[in-house]
Design brief:
Radius of gyration of chain B: 21 Å
Oligomer: heterodimer
Strand order of the largest sheet of chain A: 6-7-8-3-9-10
Largest interface: A-B, 44 and 44 residues
Number of helices of chain B: 10
Helix content of chain A: 25-40%
Number of domains of chain A: 1
Radius of gyration of chain A: 21 Å
CATH class of chain A: Alpha Beta
Largest sheet of chain A: 6 strands, mixed
CATH class of the largest domain in chain B: Alpha Beta
Order of helices and strands of chain A: EEEHEEHEHHHEHEHEEHHHH
Distance between the termini of chain A: 48 Å
Shape of chain A: globular
Structural class of chain A: alpha/beta
Structural class of chain B: alpha/beta
Shape of chain B: globular
Number of domains of chain B: 2
CATH superfamily of the largest domain in chain B: P-loop containing nucleotide triphosphate hydrolases
CATH architecture of the largest domain in chain B: 3-Layer(aba) Sandwich
CATH architecture of chain A: 3-Layer(aba) Sandwich
Mean pLDDT of chain B: 92
Low-confidence stretches of chain B: none
CATH superfamily of chain A: P-loop containing nucleotide triphosphate hydrolases
Strand content of chain B: 15-25%
Mean pLDDT of chain A: 92
């Protein structure tokens, strides 16, 4: 049991006339090794929620447990929590500041007070995980492409050796290939290292492809929690919340309405292709 | 008549050291020729670093050519005396709405451009009214821009450009930061401005779905135009697009995969309706 969120509220301006619920009675448990997608329209509370998970924001009410320990007890080590729950913000490349790529990735582990050898080893490993080889180490991060910069920023978080990696729209503004590359690298961390991943995204197609579980936020509340297939079944309700299902879901539903016998819960191009070919050859 | 014309355009990003000596030259645009007709809706695709944004910044003179020439409505962008006319003719909308909004309330923000141009007060109000109406944001005119959704903010930014009465709008990834609804709002707004007001639109995007309704798609790679055609012509070339680090809409990809597996489908299917209309008879007869 990695993260347990119990009845949390987050109220901005509590006790004033402007009090506003950013989160309201949110509950869920994320187990070790899950790959969770988090979706919701702009202002639905996604970003507020993820900042609670590593203690950057404190819930107005409710409790959060990390590996069974309540993070709001007085002697809880918040610093250690932030090392274990790594958060990659939107446009993380805006936070790069060192003169070269390698130093930037070393910054986090250096602050953990590790030995020089350990810091170097961690930086090398983290850069390798995001697909940046030695030729990048001495380059200025500011002269890299958008996708490369973002990789450096992600490596900076990976070098802290987090157990849980939370990414807020890691592919915004990247070209399709760059998007696929970063998502593949994240997926590999999940498959090979068993890292728990929480991916915030506006791309339903990406979520359908990578996440095994999907949380949907709307107006500060958790409204759906299930496998992507289960959640995308509610595509009309998702649309009413300013979201959508992957395009493939719409095709599949329309084919069904037109009397084509294919399974309902298809969300990726590969699944739809196989099902359509089967229906076609079955004739 | 062409709204935008570029001839043998070259642009170098030059890095200098502290002694002002040239350290590195990075050629972002490499001999680009382009003509974009008045009233066209043109989408520009290309991977990060392909030169799209650098080209866009040439259209209203934010960047000036290292070599070659760019004309906007027959004005040479290097003509210093006409820079304000050039910027009035071509307006720009960028990726992040929060970096473009400066007013405390929506109407103030939209009026900022014409006010700076010295437009008389009465006329400013008229333009603010019209621009907000054109992007469907009239109901929000007295609101604080901070309280709007991403899509709404981006529409306010577009209204701010519209209030300058441009003939052409260049949008550089206007939907990259928006949720699905916000993306739809912005694209619908831009398409309407193009259809109703005849504004020439140059839309830079990484979302292939947004390109489907354009009159023309330009693909850039290495600072040059490498593909140029209708969305159907472009998206029929799935493998070539992938080689340029691009993609096709999921609908097109599904159709392409089905065709590869032997189904008799045309190339470059772009819409859901089209795919369904072709698939239903094929599946029911099993041909």
């Amino acid at each position: 049991m990695a993260i347990k969120v119990e009845h949390i509220d987050h109220i901005y301006g509590a006790g004033t006339a402007f009090a506003q619920y950013a989160l309201r009675d949110v509950n869920f448990t994320i187990e070790d090794g899950e790959f969770v997608g988090l979706i919701g329209h702009t202002g639905s509370g996604k970003s507020t929620l993820i900042q609670h998970l590593n203690g950057l924001l404190r819930a107005s009410n409710g409790q959060i447990y990390y590996n069974g320990e309540c993070i709001y007890t007085n002697d809880y080590d918040m610093r250690a929590l932030r090392g274990k729950v790594g958060l990659v913000f939107q446009y993380p490349e805006h936070q790069l500041f060192e003169a070269d790529v390698f130093s930037d990735v070393c910054f986090g582990p250096k602050n953990l007070g590790l030995s020089k050898e350990e810091i170097d080893a961690r930086a090398r490993e983290a850069l390798g995980q995001v697909g940046l080889d030695e030729s990048f180490y001495r380059q200025s991060p500011f002269e890299l492409s958008g996708g490369q910069k973002r990789r450096v920023a992600i490596a900076g978080v990976l070098a802290m050796h987090p157990e849980v990696l939370i990414l807020d729209e890691p592919t915004a503004g990247l070209d399709p290939k760059g998007r696929d590359e970063i998502l593949e690298e994240i997926s590999e961390l999940h498959r090979k290292k068993g890292m728990t991943i929480i991916l915030v995204s506006h791309s339903m197609e990406d979520i359908a492809r990578y996440a095994s579980r999907l949380l949907v936020m709307n107006q500060g509340e958790k409204v759906f929690d299930g496998t992507p297939k289960e959640v995308f079944r509610h595509y009309r309700e998702l649309e009413a919340m300013g979201l959508a299902a992957p395009q493939i879901t719409y095709i599949v539903h329309e084919l069904q309405e037109r009397g084509v016998g294919i399974p309902q819960d298809l969300t990726t191009v590969e699944e739809a292709r196989d099902a359509i070919l089967q229906a076609w050859k079955g004739k | 008549m062409e709204m935008i014309k570029a001839s043998k355009l070259i642009f170098d990003y030059i890095r200098r050291n502290e002694e002002d000596q040239i350290e590195e030259v990075n050629r972002a645009i490499d001999g680009l020729d382009a003509e974009i007709g008045t009233g066209d809706f043109v989408a520009v695709l290309g991977h990060n670093g392909s030169g799209k944004s650098t080209f866009a910044k040439h259209i209203n003179g934010i960047l000036l050519p290292t070599e070659g020439t760019v004309w906007i409505s027959h004005m040479d962008t290097k003509d210093v005396d006409r820079i304000w006319d050039i910027r009035k003719t071509a307006g720009m909308v960028f990726q992040n709405p929060d970096n473009q909004i400066i007013g405390n309330i929506v109407e103030e923000d939209v009026g900022f451009g014409p006010e700076n141009m010295g437009v008389p007060t009465e006329e400013i109000w008229k333009r603010v009214d019209e621009s907000l109406k054109a992007v469907g944001m009239t109901a929000y005119r007295m609101r604080s821009p901070n309280k709007l959704s991403g899509g709404q903010k981006q529409r306010v930014a577009i209204a701010g450009v519209m209030a300058m009465r441009p003939q052409c709008i260049v949008l550089d990834e206007p939907t990259a930061m928006l949720d699905p609804n916000g993306r739809k709002e912005v694209i619908r707004t831009v398409r309407e401005l193009n259809k109703r007001e005849g504004i020439t639109v140059l839309l830079i995007t990484h979302y292939m779905e947004e390109v489907v309704d354009a009159d023309r798609v330009i693909v850039m790679d290495g600072g040059k135009i490498v593909m140029d055609g209708t969305p159907r012509e472009i998206f029929a070339q799935v493998e070539r697009l992938k080689a340029y680090r691009l993609d096709v809409p999921q609908i097109t990809e599904l159709a392409y995969e089905l065709k590869k597996a032997g189904m008799d489908l045309p190339d470059g299917i772009l819409s859901r309706e089209e795919l369904i209309e072709h698939l239903v008879p094929l599946i029911s007869t099993g041909v």
